[in-house]
């Protein structure tokens, strides 16, 4: 069973101590985490504005009859991309929480904030790990489908 933050307060407070070098490493990691989170939030915001303008601007496009891309396809792509951006706000939020709570923990020498920052970091990496597992599964399924379609196409052409 996983120990949560609530259970950790019942342990001895002197179980684990950070050296000055460890605190410096944590402070540096917190600064980089906040920087990366802010840059990602800015990128997500710019991308969202771009996609919203694509969704509303797609209906104004005057594509010829022989064009393959329709306004509906562009709007659908824009909506799916907005959902994708919204989905990836969560790990960026966890990363930002890690950085801000780590800074508070170091400034105030607060072990509860340290636990909360490590919990946010755990959530961030758990989310990214699940996404990696899903990506590997989709790539493997694509490989299997591609091989099966390739073999069936080879036999159909004979």
Outline, from the CA principal axes?
Answer: flat
Strand content: under 5%
Give a count of the beta strands, DSSP E runs of length 2 or more. 0
Q: Look at the helices and sheets and give the structural class.
A: mainly alpha
Tell me the number of helical segments per DSSP (H or I, 4 or more residues long): 5
Mean pLDDT: 85
Helix content: over 70%
Number of domains: 1
Question: What is the H/E string?
Answer: HHHHH
The end-to-end span amounts to: 58 Å
**Biggest β-sheet: count, sense, barrel?**
none
Task: Output the radius of gyration.
Answer: 24 Å
Low-confidence region ranges: none
Describe the fold and architecture.
The protein has 158 residues and is an all-alpha fold. The chain has one domain. The chain contains five helices and no strands. It has helices spanning 5-8, 20-58, 71-87, 89-108, 111-156. Helix 4 (89-108) runs antiparallel to helix 5. The longest helix is centred in the last third of the chain and has 46 residues, at 111-156. The chain crosses the membrane at residues 35-61, 73-96, 127-151. Keywords: Membrane, Transmembrane, Transmembrane helix.
List keywords for this structure.
mainly alpha
Secondary structure elements and their pairing?
Elements: H1 5-8, H2 20-58, H3 71-87, H4 89-108, H5 111-156
Transmembrane segments: 35-61, 73-96, 127-151
Keywords: Membrane, Transmembrane, Transmembrane helix
